[in-house]
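User: Predict structure, ligand 0O2.
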Amino acid sequence: MNHWDQFLGPYKQAVEELKIKLRGMRSQFDLDSAHSPIEFVTGRVKPIASILDKANQKGIPLDRLETEIQDIAGLRMMCQFVDDIKIVVELLRNRNDFEIVEERDYISHKKVSGYRSYHVVIQYPVQTIHGEKKILAEIQIRTLAMNFWATIEHSLNYKYKGQIPDEIRIRLQRAAEAAFRLDEEMSQIRGEIQDAQVFFTFKKELQQESRKLPRHSG
Ligand code: 0O2
Ligand code: 0O2
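Assistant: Predicted complex:
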């Protein structure tokens, strides 16, 4: 086994375990027939070339990768609505199978690029044949619209090797705002539908109650 296989082994195990655990949270909402704040979950181990690029860009020596690069193990949780993100973060805070070491709110404080997501960095204990090993993992929580924008912006960045022309950069910032307005509009529509449902349920209950009342003849 080479050095990289040995180094990445616990990260691979952590990503596989966390995918199952976080997807399990979604299935539990399905069982309760409740609206799931989690739409879907993905995960990956950062490719070696990307680890080396990041270490190089940030001046991180190879013997400090474990502590200085927080997203070698990366998970993403996609939500339908912005409000669902808060629920998911709260669910993560209440778990006792890992410890949250940092939270970064790029929703209230978007990045200059236009990027929005909520990042939670955790310390996750992996059981290995040599004992327990705690590794860092980054969970990115975002809406479907934020994910749509980030996926395309990420591939353009890759295509332009990080040197996106100014004009495209500005259009991407505008597109990020459009995605955010879409999120807001969808939340409003959901709110109005929920209000209407509460109103109709109340009206139906009132009708049923009034049918039970004795009728006065003449
Ligand atoms: P790319 O280059 O984006 O296409 P499964 O069989 O469903 O259990 P699978 O197929 O191994 O799992 O992977 P899954 O869960 O569908 O997710 C892998 C995807 O994670 C990647 O696909 C990316 O879309 C996404 N991803 C990429 N970067 C990150 C990151 O930094 N953090 C997180 N959390 N997720 C990321 P690809 O094909 O590997 O990459
Ligand atoms: P990949 O290919 O997704 O793994 P830094 O890399 O210095 O900006 P830091 O301090 O490690 O960041 O953490 P940060 O910014 O909280 O999280 C970095 C990850 O967030 C990135 O990983 C992306 O997955 C995502 N991200 C941050 N900013 C942007 C952005 O402007 N556009 C997009 N599309 N994604 C972003 P990597 O390592 O860059 O890439």
